[in-house]
C-alpha cells in the first residue's frame, strides 16, 4: 500500500482502486494510465441517427395492422363471391344448354308450361323466332277446344290463357330490348375491332355514347367468354370495360 502512496508504478493494467463512501485511495499511475474514477456514466442525447433507429415510435400501428387485415379479408371475400357467381352462372349455362328447343307448336306450349318461372324471360327471348302469328293462332285454337271439350279443365284453360297473355307481353319487351341493344351492339363491335382502343373510347365519350347498355353488353360477353373457358378474351374485354367506365360521362 505504501507503494501506492509513494506513486510507485504497478502493472499498467492491474491496479487497485479502493472506494468507500467517505474515503478514496488514488490508484498508482504509470506514464500513460489515467486515474480510475468510479463515477456514474452519463449519456448525452444522440442527434446523429441516419437510419432512424432512435426515432420516436409512431402511433396507430394497431389500427394500421387491423386495416391491412380487414382489406385482405375483404379481398378474399370478394374473390370468393366472384368465384361463386361464375360457378353459378356456369351451372345455369349448362342447364340452359341441356334444354332442347321445341320443334312444333304443341311442343312449344308444353315447353313453356314446364319452364321454371325465373327462366321464362330467357326462354321467351331464345324462342322468339318460334313465337309467330301461326303459333298464337294455334294457341288460341287450343284454348277454344278446351272450352268446348266434354272433359274441359278450367285449370288448363286458365294456364293457356295466362301463357298467351305472358307471351304477348314478353315478345313486346324482347323486341323493344333488341331494338335498344342494336345500337350498343354496333358500338361494342366497333370498339373491339378498333386498332386504337383509346381513340375509339374518346370518340364514344365525346358523343356521350358510353352508357349502361354498352357496359352491360360488355359484361354479358365477358361472362359468356368465361363460361366457354375463353379466359384471355374475357380478360381483354374486362380491360376495355374498365377503361370505358373511366371515360363514362354520366353515372
Automatic annotation (TrEMBL):
<keyword id="KW-0175">Coiled coil</keyword>
<feature type="coiled-coil region">
    <location>
        <begin position="64"/>
        <end position="98"/>
    </location>
</feature>
<protein>
    <submittedName>
        <fullName>Uncharacterized protein</fullName>
    </submittedName>
</protein>
Amino acid at each position: 500500500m505504501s507503494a501506492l502512496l509513494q506513486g510507485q508504478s504497478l502493472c499498467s493494467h492491474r491496479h487497485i482502486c479502493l472506494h468507500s463512501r467517505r474515503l478514496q485511495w488514488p490508484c498508482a499511475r504509470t506514464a500513460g494510465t489515467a486515474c480510475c474514477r468510479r463515477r456514474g456514466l452519463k449519456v448525452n442525447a444522440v442527434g446523429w441517427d441516419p437510419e432512424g433507429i432512435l426515432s420516436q415510435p409512431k402511433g396507430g400501428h394497431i389500427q394500421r395492422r387491423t386495416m391491412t387485415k380487414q382489406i385482405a379479408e375483404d379481398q378474399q371475400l370478394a374473390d370468393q363471391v366472384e368465384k361463386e357467381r361464375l360457378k353459378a352462372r356456369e351451372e345455369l349455362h349448362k342447364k340452359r344448354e341441356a334444354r332442347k328447343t321445341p320443334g312444333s307448336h304443341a311442343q312449344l306450349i308444353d315447353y313453356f308450361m314446364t319452364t321454371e318461372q325465373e327462366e321464362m324471360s330467357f326462354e321467351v327471348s331464345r324462342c322468339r323466332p318460334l313465337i309467330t302469328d301461326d303459333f298464337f293462332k294455334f294457341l288460341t285454337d287450343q284454348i277454344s277446344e278446351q272450352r268446348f271439350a266434354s272433359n274441359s279443365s278450367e285449370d288448363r284453360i286458365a294456364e293457356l290463357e295466362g301463357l298467351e297473355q305472358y307471351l304477348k307481353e314478353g315478345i313486346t319487351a324482347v323486341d323493344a330490348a333488341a331494338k335498344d341493344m342494336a345500337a350498343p351492339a354496333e358500338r361494342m363491335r366497333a370498339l373491339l375491332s378498333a386498332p386504337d382502343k383509346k381513340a375509339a373510347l374518346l370518340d364514344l365519350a365525346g358523343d356521350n355514347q358510353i352508357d349502361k347498355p354498352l357496359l352491360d353488353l360488355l359484361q354479358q360477353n365477358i361472362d359468356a367468354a368465361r363460361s366457354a373457358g375463353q379466359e384471355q378474351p374475357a380478360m381483354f374485354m374486362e380491360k376495355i370495360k374498365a377503361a370505358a367506365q373511366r371515360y363514362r360521362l354520366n353515372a
